[in-house]
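Appendix B. Raw example, untouched.
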Amino acid sequence: MAEHTNKQLDEITLSTESIYKGKIISVQVDTVKLPNGDESKREVVRHSGAVAVLAIHNDRMIVVEQFRQPLGRTQVEIPAGKLDPGEKPEDAINRELKEETGYTAKSMKLLFSFYTSPGFADEIIHLYLADELTAGDAELDEDEFLEVTEITLEEAFAQIREGRMSDAKTIMAVQAWQLLKLGAQPGQ
């Protein structure tokens, strides 16, 4: 990610209070000194990061549909998963694609990395493009229930309009796919 550029806007952390430590996230409240010398509180969600994959097979994007508890409904998304502590994104991406879809890729290319919500969280997602896919059997986690399908670009845009596909990583992947089809190189 980009180097730090504007020291005049830095906030200095004076103290940190741990509020919650879970399997996926931790939450803390930081007391910070603002650039003008005043103090303020910042609620921060810590996350180990994640990988996501734009996997195209026969000009169709591989997606998974699964129930998302925070939304109270199913959601159509690209395959993705969290990084284990200390795990490199390039190691995790192949694992996640195989686990969720059964597909393996001859090559993976990092398109770009992005923060999901930097106003309160440090979660970063590394979005990859999978190439030369081979079908196989999925290896879902015990608590993972999903359906794998392949959709066209037009179907993806229809699902975005319908609200079936509404998470940022998937919408970004669809936009990247569209750029790729137009001959552009997203993320470069």
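End of appendix B.
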